[in-house]
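Recap quiz, item 2
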Amino acid sequence: MSSYDQGYTCIECEHSYDDRDGDLDERMCFECLDKIKVPFNFRYHAEIQYETELGFNFCNANGNTLDELLCDIDERLDQYKDRLPELSLVLKDPNGEQIDITNDVLKRLKEKS
Ligand SMILES: [Zn+2]
């Protein structure tokens, strides 16, 4: 198999990707691009881990208020509900002070359900 057939190797996760599921300029698959790109205009940022065939991966949830964030988290947890999604990190002010509020948010999610 030539390297062309395998696509390119992501510099972040080292899985291979091609132009359909990655960015050749960034040399990363879209999943890693998603992971490192924290939108600057959100005050809350969460990372959710879920299982894949190869191991696990992460997706993001964001919000400007805690309620917005919780809604977004709910949506993601639902989206990946068959893949054992788990909240792995929640940050307030992700591009500034980066206050870890993971435990608070986990508590709130439990209260809601
Ligand atoms: Zn990757």
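Strands lie at 8-9, 16-17, 22-23, 28-29, 44-52, 55-63, 86-92, 99-100.
The chain is about 30% helix and 30% strand.
End of item.
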